[in-house]
Structure formats: structure tokens, C-alpha cells
């Protein structure tokens, strides 16, 4: 008999706990909605109190220069708590077009949202002048989410300003053909300028040889130099001629991508052969040959 009573009590306790779980739901408390205008002083404008179970009987008017502000505390089973989602939903009755404004919610459940004409879609400003406003509070878990009609919002436009116009929607499709205009290839300077500078370089060669002779250049050592180190001297001289040839090709037909690799290879050969040729010259200088 006692075991039967204990079993019955456990069943009743289980059913009672299930009823508590199923009764858990989201909602809000301490909710107010206010309208603040630019010309309204401190405490001016409309201010109404919102309740969970009943919407406001009169619509709230939002003028062109007004700001709507809603403040509330979100609750779960009558206890202040921060939900995963909380927003104000506005819907246009004729077209059923709606948009949502998320509430800024703190850990304590304190939430607020502000909006004005500039936050509303153009369709809300050109269609029906009365919108339906609902509050939605929900989160993860088994608690029942809250969604209920809170008030009607009447949009009042500025009669002195032109009516807002909707922007043309972006449509993807075939566009007109684009004709690219590329920059013309760089042209070489006039031939007369090239000939003038070429003549100046050729005319400077006798002056160069004269300066070499005046500084003590001795061509009689050329046979000894080529005899001691023929490969380095010949390679060094030919690499200089090759570098001049690369510059000529770059000037006439080559581009930079062809010139740089060739100049890098020839420059390396010039450096290696030149260092060996200078080492031979240093040896002759140490032997007293000038």
C-alpha cells in the first residue's frame, strides 16, 4: 500500500514538473514607448506603457523629424534574462512587407531600440501610412517564444518636403559592350636626335684615347697581358661589347623582360672575368711594370 502511494506521488511530481517546464515562456516587463521630436523639450512628446497581453488602443504617430524609442526588460518565466533574439517587427498590412529592428539587449535583460524615418524602407513611407508593430523575444531551449502585436505605428510625412521615391532595383542582365582603349606603345625618339647623340659618342672616342695616353696607358703590355691571362682579358672585353649590344637591342626591339635576364647573365660574366683580369694587372704593377 505504501509503495503504491509512493508511486502515485512520484507520478504527480513528474506531471507537475512537466507543467512547470511547459509553462516557461519568454516575455517582457517595464516596457515603455516614447516619441521624441526635435522641438520637444525635456519630458515632451508621447510616452505610453506597453504590456505583454494587450496592444495599445491608439496608434503611435511618428513624424518626419521624430524618433521612436522603446525600452523594456526581457524576461523568461518572469525573471529578467537576456534572450538570443529580440527585435521590433514592422509590417505593412496591404503588401505584407515587413522589416525588423533588433533590440540592443544587456546581460541584465535591459533592452532598447530607436528608429526614425531614415531607418524605414521607402515602401513604408510611400504605401500605407499605418504599420503594425510587434515585439518578438525568443531564445534557445524549451521556453515558449513571445510574439504579439504591441501597437500600430502611423507614419506622418512632412508636407513641405517632396515624397520619397524608391530607388530602381538592381537587375542583372546583358550590359552594353565595353570598348577598351589601351595606351599606345611608347615610340622611339626621332631619328635626328638618335643620330646626334650617336655622333657625340663616336666623336668622344678620340678624346678618350688621348686621355688614356696622357695618363700613361701602355699598349705594349697587351701581348703580355693576353699571354698571362688570355681567357679573362678576352672574356672581359667581349662581355663589355655584349652589354653594349644588349642596350642596342633594348633600344631597337627588345622589351624589359628580355633585356633584364640577358643583362644579368652578361653582367655576372663581366664581374668574374674583370676580377681575374684586374688580378693580372695588379701582378704586373707589383713587378714594376707600368
Summarize this structure as a short list of keywords or feature phrases.
single chain; 290 residues; alpha+beta; six-stranded antiparallel beta sheet; five-stranded mixed beta sheet; 6 helices; 24% strand
Description:
The chain is α+β, with helices and mostly antiparallel strands and 290 residues long. The protein contains six helices and eleven strands. Strands 1, 2, 4, 5, 8 and 9 form a six-stranded antiparallel beta sheet that branches. Strands 3-11-10-6-7 form a five-stranded mixed beta sheet, with no helix packed on it. A hairpin with a 2-residue loop joins strand 4 and strand 5. Helix 5 runs antiparallel to helix 6. The longest helix is centred in the last third of the chain and has 31 residues. The N and C termini lie far apart (133 Å).
Summary?
The protein has 290 residues and is an alpha+beta fold. 39% of the residues lie in helices and 24% in strands.
Order of helices and strands: HEEEEEEEEEHEEHHHH
Helical coverage, percent range: 25-40%
> Strand pairing plus helix content: what structural class?
alpha+beta
Put simply, the count of helices is: 6
Q: Distance between termini?
A: 133 Å
Runs with pLDDT <50, length 5+?
none
Average pLDDT, to the nearest integer?
Answer: 83
Radius of gyration: 46 Å
Please report the total strand number as a whole number: 11
Q: Which outline best applies?
A: elongated
The percent range for strand residues is: 15-25%
* Biggest sheet architecture: 6 strands, antiparallel
Amino acid at each position: 500500500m505504501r509503495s503504491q502511494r509512493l508511486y502515485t506521488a512520484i507520478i504527480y511530481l513528474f506531471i507537475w514538473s512537466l507543467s512547470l517546464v511547459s509553462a516557461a515562456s519568454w516575455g517582457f516587463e517595464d516596457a515603455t514607448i516614447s516619441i521624441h521630436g526635435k522641438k520637444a523639450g525635456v519630458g515632451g512628446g508621447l510616452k505610453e506603457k506597453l504590456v505583454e497581453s494587450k496592444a495599445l488602443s491608439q496608434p503611435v504617430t511618428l513624424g518626419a523629424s521624430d524618433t521612436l524609442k522603446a525600452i523594456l526588460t526581457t524576461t523568461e518565466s518572469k525573471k529578467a534574462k537576456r534572450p538570443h533574439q529580440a527585435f521590433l517587427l514592422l509590417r505593412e498590412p496591404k503588401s505584407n512587407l515587413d522589416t525588423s529592428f533588433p533590440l540592443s539587449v544587456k546581460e541584465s535583460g535591459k533592452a532598447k531600440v530607436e528608429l526614425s524615418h531614415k531607418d524605414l524602407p521607402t515602401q513604408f513611407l510611400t504605401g500605407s501610412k499605418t504599420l503594425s508593430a510587434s515585439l518578438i523575444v525568443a531564445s534557445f531551449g524549451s521556453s515558449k517564444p513571445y510574439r504579439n502585436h504591441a501597437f500600430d505605428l502611423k507614419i506622418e510625412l512632412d508636407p513641405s518636403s517632396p515624397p520619397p521615391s524608391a530607388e530602381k532595383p538592381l537587375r542583372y542582365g546583358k550590359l552594353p559592350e565595353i570598348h577598351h582603349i589601351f595606351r599606345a606603345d611608347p615610340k622611339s625618339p626621332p631619328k635626328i636626335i638618335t643620330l646626334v647623340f650617336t655622333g657625340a659618342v663616336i666623336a668622344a672616342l678620340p678624346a678618350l684615347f688621348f686621355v688614356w695616353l696622357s695618363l700613361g696607358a701602355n699598349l705594349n703590355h697587351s701581348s703580355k697581358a693576353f699571354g698571362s691571362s688570355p681567357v679573362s682579358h678576352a672574356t672581359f672585353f667581349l662581355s663589355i661589347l655584349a652589354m653594349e649590344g644588349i642596350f642596342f637591342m633594348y633600344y631597337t626591339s627588345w622589351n624589359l623582360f628580355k633585356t633584364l635576364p640577358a643583362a644579368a647573365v652578361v653582367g655576372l660574366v663581366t664581374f668574374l672575368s674583370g676580377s681575374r683580369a684586374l688580378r693580372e694587372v695588379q701582378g704586373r704593377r707589383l713587378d714594376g711594370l707600368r
